[in-house]
Amino acid sequence: MTAGRLLFRGALFMVAALALSACSMFRGDDSGGSRADDNAGRGGGVTLGGGGSSSSGGGGGGDAGIGVNSFLWRASLDTLNFMPLASADPFGGVIITDWYSDPTTPSERFKATVYILDTRLRADALNVSIFRQQQANGAWVDATVDPDTEVQIENAILTRARQLRLSTVGN
Predict the structure, then answer these.
(1) How distant, in Å, are the alpha carbons of 3, 15, 17, 20 from that of 6?
(2) Cα separations (Å) of 142 from 101, 108, 138, 147?
(3) How confident is the model over 116-169, as pLDDT tens digits?
(4) What is the DSSP secondary-structure string of the chain?
(5) pLDDT tens for each residue of 19-32
(6) Are the CB atoms for 130 and 149 separated by under 8 Å?
(7) Could you write out the DSSP letters of every residue in 141-157?
(8) Between the CA of residue 23 and those of 17, 18, 19, 32, 115, what are the distances in Å?
(9) CATH of 70-169, one of 2.40.50, 3.30.530, 2.60.120, 2.40.128
């Protein structure tokens, strides 16, 4: 390959790289203020605090700044408040409790995980898993949980969520 041809290919490569990098170079006004105004006008983002504004329809509470229905979130925390929390993620909609042992039955303990799957207040937007262990020979052993227990806790959460929603609609 001749030096002229090699120089031509190198120059062609440089021009292509320069043209490609210039594609995003001129986007108009790129000040931080205009981007912030655009984002604020679009909505979304994170709002801290607040119980949840009700949107039209049956959902309600979806615009509270968290990724899930705020009424279901609050109702889940209220319903499981007797159990110590291990983890609570309002953006992912997951509440995990630590093991809880009732003082009347110290050889048995429970753990709960609540998944809030939607921004609307609906029964299918909630999934509760209960885990149970019994103490045998000094070690904790997994035990079966009555499936009705999970349904009862889901119903208690849904009932509390409806109460919370009705209390905000009335105001």
Answers:
(1) 5, 14, 17, 21
(2) 14, 10, 13, 15
(3) 999 999 999 999 999 999 999 989 999 999 989 999 999 999 999 999 999 988
(4) --HHHHHHHHHHHHHHHHHHHHTTT--S---HHHHHHHHHHH--S---S---PPPSSS--STTSSSSS-HHHHHHHHHHTTTSPEEEEETTTTEEEEPPB--TT-TTEEEEEEEEE--SS--GGGEEEEEEEEEEETTEEEEE---HHHHHHHHHHHHHHHHHHHHHHH--
(5) 666 665 555 554 44
(6) yes
(7) EEE---HHHHHHHHHHH
(8) 10, 9, 7, 20, 44
(9) 3.30.530
Domain ranges of the chain: 3-42, 70-169
Cα–Cα distance for residue pair 54/45, rounded to 1 Å: 17
**Using one digit for the tens of pLDDT, what is the confidence trace for 37-67?**
454 444 444 443 444 444 433 444 444 467 8
Total number of residues shown for the chain: 171
Amino acid in the structure at residue 38: D
